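LOG
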Amino acid sequence: GLSMDWKNRIESDPAICGGRPHIKGTRLAVEFVLGLMAAGWSEAQLLDSYPHIGEADLRAVFAFAQALIEEEKYSPLPHVA
């Protein structure tokens, strides 16, 4: 698709983060970064708190998540009463 190629920035290694996908060269799991943003962190706060990652790494996190969702086959989400 149109999304950036995340493959050179996101990796999975059984020895790191229990094999969960993470930003290459770090121990920051994709789900951890997404969780911080879901909690209201801005990109500036993330880059400030984790100086070893850059804007392109954050783009890769989003592109990776987007690619996963795109490939997934979904059942309807349950309605929350």
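LOG (cont.) second protein
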Amino acid sequence: MSVDLLPQHIRDRYEVHEWRHACAILKEDFPNEWNDIVSVLENFTLNKSDIIQAGGRKSPISNKIDNYLYNLGWVEKSFDTKILIDDSAYETPTHKIDCLKNRIALEIEWNNKDPFFDRDLNNFRLLFELGAISVGVIITRCSELQFLFNSLGKGASYGTSTTHMSKLVPRIEGGGGGGCPILVFGISDRLYLDDTEVL
């Protein structure tokens, strides 16, 4: 499997899944974007302070990943898509992509309701079919992190009906992303750092 193209320390610290040779396409055809993704993953830590902080519109964890990529030239992007049949145009609206660079679409789903995965995968499928993207990437959390959240007294803020790996993989395997090559990373407890301890 082409996930072996990823550095070993990424594979050791994240749960990784791919479909339709996404890693090979990224590494060979989009080396700059590949390097950006490897870089954001290498530099990410799951800080206790970010987990216990009260939630807002977007979690500190999602913001950290977004902002890292924005500093590397990735952008939030909406597409104006339509299908033309004879002389009639039919709007085919898509949701904006969290981070886009050179035909690579990346979504961060840390703690949304799990139907957000359906939205993301439908976006990837449609944009791939229209030739707008070549690979879709999702960064989410490992399902096993629930044990960590429970131990920190934050278990009620995260639940079985929110975005985590066991909600995502069956959707992709069921064809939710169509023919789009997809690469998925699950944030694991091996990335956890208690940054609240007083030295």
